[in-house]
Amino acid sequence: DAEITQSPRHKITETGRQVTLACHQTWNHNNMFWYRQDLGHGLRLIHYSYGVQDTNKGEVSDGYSVSRSNTEDLPLTLESAASSQTSVYFCASSENPTDYNEQFFGPGTRLTVL
Amino acid sequence: KQEVTQIPAALSVPEGENLVLNCSFTDSAIYNLQWFRQDPGKGLTSLLLIQSSQREQTSGRLNASLDKSSGRSTLYIAASQPGDSATYLCAVLTGGGNKLTFGTGTQLKVEL
User: Fold this and answer.
1) Which of A11, A28, B13, B91 has the fewest beta carbons under 10 Å from its own?
2) Closest Cβ–Cβ partner in A43, A50, A99 for B51
3) Is A31 on the interface with B (CB under 8 A)?
């Protein structure tokens, strides 16, 4: 069965370190997304991609970057981790066309920045 | 900027009760609306998706309606069960067609 996976599932790091969270989908979806979920804020969009070599900033992109070198993967990098980036991170994917664009979510990565 | 509100924030009901969860959004120019379920410590499971041209969708005991002009959606759960206990999130797809804006969710507890 097609799926979307994230790794690691849990990560503890220190302030200032670079961290990369992996996201891999086997649906061959063009669109991939990264969200963070925080109490009181719900899920907020960090970055998204509509295809290989395409990346776009979302609502809360400062301090994060993504790259899309193939269809299946969209790694999220925290350039210099900050305590404010402690959160649960979700990756999602969807297929075109726009008018029926159901998004499917991965299991999440819980990141703690000390 | 699209804003999505869910009421109530938390709900506790006895098993067997029918219940309604509410979702409202400020910008009616949406492509679709999606309802999700999230169990504690888990990811999001898509329950129902309603396209902008549709009025409702049904899956088993779940029925979701959409009134785009008034910016409202409801999720109706019939004959609730303890296994329905979870947080329910609604999200609307707007602004370029691929970006979801989420509400903060309704935490549902169904008691025996």
Assistant:
1) A28
2) A99
3) yes
